[in-house]
Structures are given as structure tokens and as C-alpha cells.
Amino acid sequence: MTALELAGVTKRFGRTTAVDDVDLRVGDGELVALVGPSGCGKSTLLMLAAGLLEPDAGRLCVDDRLVAGGGTWVPPEDRRVGVVFQDAALFPHLRVADNVAFGVPRGRGRAARVAELLELVELPDLGRRYPHELSGGQQQRVALARALAPRPSVVLFDEAFGNLDHALRASVRDATARALRAAGAAGVFVTHDQGEALAVGERVAVMRDGRFEHVGEPADAFHRPANRFVATLLGEADFLPGRQSGDVVDTEVGRLAATPAARGEVEVMLRPHEVVFAADPAGTARVVRREFRGATYLYTLRLPSGATVRALVPHTLDVATGTAVTLQVEAGHPVRSFAGR
Ligand SMILES: Nc1ncnc2c1ncn2[C@@H]1O[C@H](COP(=O)(O)OP(=O)(O)OP(=O)(O)O)[C@@H](O)[C@H]1O
Ligand SMILES: [Mg+2]
């Protein structure tokens, strides 16, 4: 079954097309990360799926059941779609257990179901507290428990971890993924953090101007992005001119194995971790910048042509700016090249 499916979905606000003829299938229990620049339509897409907005065109299905489009309209509460926003939006005057119970049908077994949900989000002992007595991360997990209460097929997260600091964010995110898995629910995560998108998503969907530019597995999207926009959105990347023939490309930093997608005049994507260098008085490249990142340094190297590439190397390679260096590309796989310049 397909937990969530959008086919040809379009949503306009006046002259802005926020979501433009989008197709997406989220499999049962699948986790999909949704990334893209501010204003590209991520929240609009979630609101359409949740039933908080009506599409101008296209169809939406949840669990293979049509919920919007073609004259059908299923209201949010009947869609089997849960939503968790950046602000947990708990009811401040209700205890945690009552916040969670809000989504559980009345009747016998309600208290047991609330306990089970709190267990699922790894907060079994906090049912009697009020929201203001919880940390931000705990509040987000209560919001997740409440969203999971009606047994949704899919839960939508709109930057749900955005207010948490980095370390907490990773742990809340992992707890969330475990809870979704245990509940058998799929998840769609909107995030601004490309590292988070790559880590949490079984697939990542990259959006721009209301459309998907790339939908695929994280490693594929990172190493073989559909275009330069996707390449830079998912991580640091530099682009060097090259001339490709077959599966090799000649560049200023030598001949490289390349994906045979393009030929002739191309641009080659290099990620900083793929570039290695050493100080060498005879070297023609120079260190022009060095940024300390803790375990690593990010060096910017200027090539004779004036082009620059960055190299991410262990902090033990300690080289001053101005040093002459030789560099090489050690990607470990064919590099991605893009046609044209
Ligand atoms: N209710 C609305 N009325 C008019 N325009 C809207 C409305 N909601 C969204 N838009 C516009 O639709 C486009 C997409 O907005 P959306 O909120 O979906 O972006 P987003 O990708 O979630 O951005 P962000 O990362 O900043 O949250 C934007 O141009 C926005 O200004
Ligand atoms: Mg948004």
C-alpha cells in the first residue's frame, strides 16, 4: 500500500503557484525528508496532505483512498494523517496524558492507549506533568504521541525539530523515527538542515519553486544530484570546468573518472571531502583560506586559473594560508558532471 500519494497536485495563492503539479508517493512506513529553500512550498505541500488546504488541481490519496481531488474532500480528522509543527502547540492547561488522550477515541482502554503512546515516545513517566514543566524536546515528543494517537498512516513534520539545539535535535529525531517505526506510520519531515535530511530520510525530496528537482535515496542525491541546485542544497560543492569524453573528464586538477551522463564542455562537482592536498613548494595551487571545524579544517585552495576548490581534511593537516600545495581528487567513485557551463 501507499501511505500517501500526490498526483499532479497544484496549489496557488493569487499569482503565486506554491505547489506546482507535484507527484509524490510515500510508501507504508517510509520516512521521506523534504528540503528546499524558504518559500519553495514545503509547508503548503504538508497542509495539502493534512487537509488544511484544498488543492486547485490534482489528487491526494492516503492509504490508497482518495481524500482530495476529483470532487472528493475528506476533512483532516478523517484522513489518517498526523501533523507535528515546529511549535509543539500542546494545550497548556491540560496534563501531558490529557494532551495525548485528546486524539484517542473515548471509551474503555483509553488510559492504556495513552500509556502505550507515552511509552512509544519514550516518556512513560511524564503523563501527570503540564506542558510548561517539559523541555522543548519532551514537548515535541508529546506532540508526536498526540499525533500518533488516532493511528495515522503518515505523520507530517514541519520543521518539528527546528527549535531544538543540535545535540537534542538528533536524539529527538531518532526517538521520533523509532516511534514511527513501532507505530508502523510513514513520516514526511520538512527540514532546513541538509545533514538532517540525509540522515533521517530513507528518501529525500528536494523542492524548488513548487516542484521537485530530485527525489531519491540520500546517498544517490548527495553523490549524483539531478542538477547543481540539488548538489549545493545537500552539501558543500564546488564546480570545475572540464571536457568530458565517455567516462573520463579532463580538468585543471587532472583526469577524473566521471558519470557518463554528460559530454563535451561540462562542469564537474567536487565535494570538499573528496579533495586531498599536501604542502609542496613546487605546487601550483595555494591555500587562500582555512576554517576550523573542530575535527576538520575546511581549506579553500586557489588553482592557477583562479578557480577555487575546498578541501575538508583532518585537523592534523595544519597548513598556513599562502602555502603552495598540490592537490588531487579522491572521490572513491566517478564524479558527477553536468552538461554545459
Ligand atoms: N496563505 C497564503 N497566502 C498567500 N501566499 C501564501 C500563503 N501560504 C504560502 N504562501 C506563499 O506560497 C509560497 C510557498 O510557501 P510555503 O509556506 O509553502 O513555503 P516553505 O517552503 O514552507 O517556506 P519556509 O521554509 O520559509 O517555511 C510562498 O511564496 C508563500 O509566500
Ligand atoms: Mg514552511
UniProtKB/TrEMBL annotation:
Which branch of life, at top level? Answer: Bacteria
One GO MF term on file is: ATP binding
ABC transporter domain: residues covered: 4-234
The family database entries (InterPro entries) matched by this protein are listed as: AAA+_ATPase (IPR003593), ABC_SmlMolc_Importer (IPR050093), ABC_transporter-like_ATP-bd (IPR003439), ABC_transporter-like_CS (IPR017871), ABC_transpr_FbpC (IPR015853), Mo/tungstate-bd_C_term_dom (IPR008995), P-loop_NTPase (IPR027417), Transp-assoc_OB_typ2 (IPR013611)
Give the E.C. number(s): 7.6.2.9
GO cellular component terms attached to this protein's record: ATP-binding cassette (ABC) transporter complex
| Matches recorded under PROSITE patterns | ABC_TRANSPORTER_1 (PS00211), ABC_TRANSPORTER_2 (PS50893)
Q: Sorted alphabetically, which keywords does the UniProt record give?
A: ATP-binding, Cell membrane, Ion transport, Iron, Iron transport, Membrane, Nucleotide-binding, Transport
Enzyme class of the recorded protein, top EC level: translocase
Report what the protein is called.
Answer: ABC-type quaternary amine transporter
Organism of this sequence:
uncultured Frankineae bacterium
